[in-house]
C-alpha cells in the first residue's frame, strides 16, 4: 500500500509539473503577465502551458529579454517581433506554425529554424550570426540578413524567394540560382564577381560598395532599379535593360556607359565620380534627375529630356552654352566649376535653385523664374550682370562673393530690402539698365569729389569741384539711410549703422558714388 501511494504522488507531481512551462527571464515573464498569458500575475519563472494555446503573435520589441526559454510552448505562434532585444540564442523548433519572424538589433549568435517549414518572411538584421541554415525554409518569400557576420549561405532551394537582402556582411562570392528572385541587395560586402544571368525575374539589384570589376546584366531584361556605385567598374552596358527606371553607378572608374536607344523609362541617372568624357541623353525622354559630378565631360545636351527636374554637372570641363529651354519642369540645376559660358533658363518657370559658381558666364537672365529661392553665383571671374527682376525678390537668397567683375544685379526694387544678398562691395543692386550704365559714368567722375575721413565715425567731410545739390547714403542692399538737400559739409553720420555704406553725391553735372566704412 505504501508503494502504491508513493506511485500516485509521483504521478500527480509529474502531471502537475507538465502543466507549466519554465520562463526564467523575468522580462519575458512580465510580458506574458501583461498580455494575460501568465495568469497568476507573479514573477515565479513559470506559466500555465495551456495559456499559450491560441496565441499567434508575440511582440517583444524594445524589451531587454535575454532568454527566450518558454517560447516552445506557443505551438500556434505565427508571428514574433523582437527588435532591440538582448538574447543570444533562439530555438523555434517547436513553433511549427511560425510564418513571420523579425529579430533586429540584437546580440543573436545562433538560431534554429530547421523545423519552421511555414516561414514566409524572415528578418534577422544587425545581429551577430556568422552561420544560418535556411535550407528547410522553402516557403520563404522575403529573407533579410543585413549587418551580420555571414560569409556563406545556401539559398539554392528557396524557389519561392522574391527578395534577398544580405547587406553589410563578409561575402566575397555568392551563388544565387533563383530565377524567380525579384530583388537582390548585396551592398557593403567584398564581392569581386557575381553571375546574375540566371536571375531572369530580377527587378532590383543593389550591389554598391563592393569590389566588382565588371557587371553583366544583359540577361536581366526586367531590371528596373540598379545601384552599382562604389565598385571598380571601368564600363557599364545597360542597353538591354529597357525597363530600367533608376540607375546609380557613381564612384567607379567608368569611362564608357552604353545607355542604348531603348531606355524609355529611365527617370534617375547618377554617374558622378567617374571618368566619363561623354554621355548620350538623346534616348531617355523620361529622365527627371541627372548627376554627373567630377567627370571629364566637355559637353552635355538636355534637349531630349523634357521632364528633367534636377541636373548637377559640377566639376566638369564643359565648354558650352547650356540650353535648358526644352526643360520646363526644371526645379534645380548646378554647374559649378565648369567652363560653361552661357545658360538659358528663361523657359523654366518652376526653377527654385541655381548654382553656377566658378564658370565662364558673363551675364544671366533669371527674370522668368518667379519661384527662384537660391542663387549661388560665387567666384565667377568674368560675370558682369544678373537679372533678378522676377517679381518675387522676397524669396531670393543670393551669394555672389568673389565675382569681382559683377557690377549690377537687376532687382525689382533696389530700395525695398527684399531678399538676402551676400555680395561684394563692387556689386550694386539696381532697378534697370540705365542705373547700371550711370554707375559707370559715376565711377569715371570719382575724382570730382573727395570724402574724408574714411573710415568715419560720425562726421564726414565732402569736398567737390562742382556744386553739390544732394547727398544720399545707402547700405549695401540699396536701402536709403540718409538724404541731405542742404548743409552738405559736414555730413553727420552718427546715427547710421556701422558697416560699408554707399554715399551718392549729386552735382549739377551728374552723380558720384563712393564707398565708405562707418565705424
From TrEMBL:
It comes from the Bacteria. GO terms for molecular function: signaling adaptor activity. Pfam families: Por_Secre_tail (PF18962). The keyword Signal applies. Residues 451-517 form the Secretion system C-terminal sorting domain. Residues 1-18 form the signal peptide. Keywords: Leucine-rich repeat, Repeat, Signal. InterPro entries: CDIRP, Secre_tail. NCBIfam families: Por_Secre_tail (TIGR04183). This is T9SS type A sorting domain-containing protein.
